[in-house]
Amino acid sequence: MTDTAEVAYRLQDERPEPDDFYREVIAGLDRRPRQIPPKFFYDEAGSRLFERICKQPEYYPTRVETGILDQYANEIAGLTGKDSCLIEPGSGSCMKVRLLLDALRPSRYIPMDISCSHLHEAAGRVAEDFPWLDVHAVCADITRSVDLDCIPAQARRIVFYPGSSIGNYEPRKAVEFLCRLADISGPGGGLLIGVDLEKETRILDEAYNDANGITAEFNLNLLHRINRELDGDIDIDTFRHHAFYNETEGRVEMHLVSECSQTLRIDGHRYEFAAGESIHTENSYKYTAAGFTALAECAGFTAEALWTDDDELFSLHFLRAA
Ligand SMILES: C[S@@+](CC[C@H](N)C(=O)[O-])C[C@H]1O[C@@H](n2cnc3c(N)ncnc32)[C@H](O)[C@@H]1O
Fold it and tell me: For the whole model, what pTM was predicted?
């Protein structure tokens, strides 16, 4: 718990056990194709690298979604109402919510993230910059059960889930996760969610392969993290970042590809890699606005509003929980 005299700010620490990372890496490298969930990108270094990705000229999602939030903040507030409890899973740097706070005037803001020190800093800065706001940060893995007693019993709940993080789930799992968000928002509550749209392959390929190599660094940081935290002996230079739009699946895939045949050792486990063999680290599904609305309806939401940019690169949906 962190409390200062000047700002209303608390940190609820339910961070995952270090064992979670160990178990999922060991299991994921044994699987075929080899796969490690994207939530493990976000240690301290990974969170900082993600912030740098957001500033790359090719990475349009942050820039475009920010523009939509900025332009429609008052209209959004008309739908959410004021004095709600605003809950943001995967809040990262908490930059986007800043565009909404003055219009929405929530009675409590609950940012939630797996990356604890990053959350602590970001939420603390929000509390400082918006001294009227009650901030209760929750460090937790949002795919697991989380104690949400911090949501006041009578509050109207608005869940804010920007960044197209919903695209990390394959569509069936996305519906399951949306059901979870519907549970959190409760009957009559709302979900404001950012969803990346289908578009020309070139724009997608460039966005996930920025010329400065920051997305590559972000992807490769997962191997550094394995070396740092799990006693790995991976020679990072023998892997390369590979990201591309898979048209058949309708998703951008990120992989770490071994450039040679080699054996990796992680805490006594051995993994034989052929040259060209990859670890699949992220999917980022792209939707049409109608396709995503249909998915949200499967989770019991009703679509109330949809905003996009002029080029229809990105969409922001306001959905009401049944
Ligand atoms: C793609 S970033 C988006 C950040 C921010 N919402 C935005 O729109 O810019 C994903 C964020 O979700 C967090 N995250 C990823 N998986 C998570 C999980 N399972 N539980 C909690 N936070 C998670 C990461 O630490 C990161 O801050």
Answer: 0.97
